[in-house]
Each structure stands twice: as C-alpha cells, then as structure tokens.
Amino acid sequence: MSVAFFDLDKTLLAVNSASLWIRRELALGHITRWQALRASLWMARYHLGFVSMQDALRAAIGHLAGTEALPIQKRTTAFYEEQVRPLYRPGALLALEDHRNAGDRLVLLTSSTGYLSELVARDLRLDAILCNRFEVNADGLHTGKPLGIVCFGEGKRTCAEAYAKEVGAPLSSCSFYTDSYSDLPVMEVVGKPVAVHPDHRLRREALRRGWPVVDWGVPRGGSPLKGASGAPQAGASPR
C-alpha cells in the first residue's frame, strides 16, 4: 500500500483558489471591501512573518460564525464550475493517472475548505480528502470553529500521518506533491517528496536536499478534464 498526497492551490491547480474566491465574493456583494482588505492584510502579515497561517485560518473560520452553510456550499459549487475547474495543471492530471495505474491511493492534502475539496475529489476521482472543515450546528449555521485540527503546516503532517497509519501505508513509501515551503513538515516525513512549481524557499530547500522539482504546466483554455491529450506532457510524476 502506498499513498500519493497532493496539495491543491498552485500544485494541482495553476492558481490560488482562495484569492479567486475573495475577489468573486467581493464582486458578487457577499463580502465588503473591508472584509476583502482584511483577508488580504492577514495574508500579507503572514508572508512578512508577523502572524502564523494557523492563526489566519482560525480567524477566517471564526468570521463564518452565524452564517448559513448551505448558501456558501452552493456558491462554492458555482465558483468551482465557472472558475476553478478549467485550471488544473495538465501535468497534474498525468501524475494522478500515473499513481492510479500503480495502484496507489490518491489523497488531497490541502488547507482549502471541505466545500471546495469535495468537488475537486469528485472530478479527479480521489480516494480521500484531508482539508479544513467547518463545524455546523443543528440549525445549519457555522459555529466559527474548525472540525478537528487546522490542516496547515504541522497540522497537515498530523493529518497525513494519521491517514497513512489508518490505511497501513508506511510514510517511507508515500509521495507528496506541493508548491509551498509551508508544507515542509510533510515533505520531511514522506519517502518521495516532490516540489511542483515551488516558491523560492521550497525550491532552494528542494535543490539542497536533492528532491525532484517538476513543471506541470498551465492549462491551455477550456477544462483539461474534458481531455488532456492536447496538453503539454511536462511533469509526469517521477517514480
């Protein structure tokens, strides 16, 4: 048994879906300019090292308190179909098929929401999802609390370790694909870490450690899910 873990934003996807979501919610009037600015400021403070992303994610989840879950789920579905679905990297689809043909379990390991991750997993035919999920009360309202640990950094590693143990897969036989230095805790415990279009810190670390660095390309208009035969063949997973 082996598991291939995949990050979502800027790894399977060629974009950061959270940034697209904020812009869309602002344009549709679901959030104010101040709320959009506040989210951007949290991101800026994180990149400058002033706050942890765990704190930023907890703050974002906290701001959902009292909101209805169903309308957000519906808006997420429309967002995915209209903006996200065409943005899978062609090499990502090839890597998924490579691991599927090898009999590996395919697992999404992401800081994104359960609402979006469920749609991704459905289209890509993944075996499991490890992500951030929100607590919803009996009235269908968000409580402002996460379900379980925050899936980011060390939290991602904890999620990966628990899943691997559950399915009986030694981490030494598992793979993980990501673009982000923040995922270093996971890359350090799997046997096959791969940097996909890495940020500058992860690129430097991957080169220092001899980890593969791959280019999975960008989609050429339309949804690669409708046929990736014309996509560039770059970045099939190293094995």
UniProtKB/TrEMBL annotation:
Entries under InterPro entries matching the protein: HAD-like_SerB, HAD-like_sf, HAD_hydro_SerB1, HAD_sf
Record's protein name: HAD-superfamily subfamily IB hydrolase
Protein origin, superkingdom: Bacteria
GO molecular function, one term: metal ion binding
Pfam families the record matches: HAD
Keywords: Hydrolase, Magnesium, Metal-binding
This protein's record includes keyword GTP-binding: no
